[in-house]
Amino acid sequence: MTQDAHKQRYEGRCLCGSVSFVIEAVFDGFFLCHCSHCRKGSGSAHASNLFSSTATLTWLSGEEMVSHYQIPNSRHARNFCKQCGSPLPRIVRAKDDEAETDGGLVVPAGCLDTPLPLLPTAHIFTGSRADWDHELETIPQFEDFPR
Which residues 6+ apart lie within 8 Å of 12 measured at CB? Predict the structure, then answer.
């Protein structure tokens, strides 16, 4: 049985709903990245990204609303909605000797509407972790905004 036979369908969209998409994928990894680029790009302690080398991405609406940002002289890049700024999936372009080819798909886990049947694989770039990002499971938790 091929890997394609195990692909699952995931639907997602941005916060404002301008951009929607479908991904057919088997995810190779699910990483919580603590590098300074991902922290700044997400505005949080880490980015939560899924990676697939065989996924297919189909934009259902709003593809013209997808903007791309690449940090100069870096591998770090991100796609986001021009309207609301939500992170969106991006195809990684790998350069070989002749041309650019698809290097896989990076999917911000939070933009998916379909529940994920997997847990994160690992925390990465923990040497860049925010100073305040330690033992967070020990602080109080609330189901909604505390009163």
Answer: 20, 21, 22, 23, 89, 107, 111, 112, 113, 114
* Burial (0-12, 13-18, 19+ Cβ within 10 Å), 125: middle
Tokens standing for 84?
């609301």
Helix (H) or strand (E) holding 81: strand 77-81
pLDDT tens per residue, range 65-122: 999 999 998 888 999 999 999 999 999 876 554 544 457 999 999 999 999 999 999 9
* Cβ contacts of 48 within 8 Å, gap of 6 or more: 30, 31, 32, 42, 108, 109, 110, 120
Query: How would you label 47-64 residue by residue, b for 16+ Cβ within 10 Å and e otherwise?
Result: bbbbbbebbebeeeebee
Q: Using CA atoms, how far apart are residues 20 and 2, in angstroms rounded to an integer? A: 28
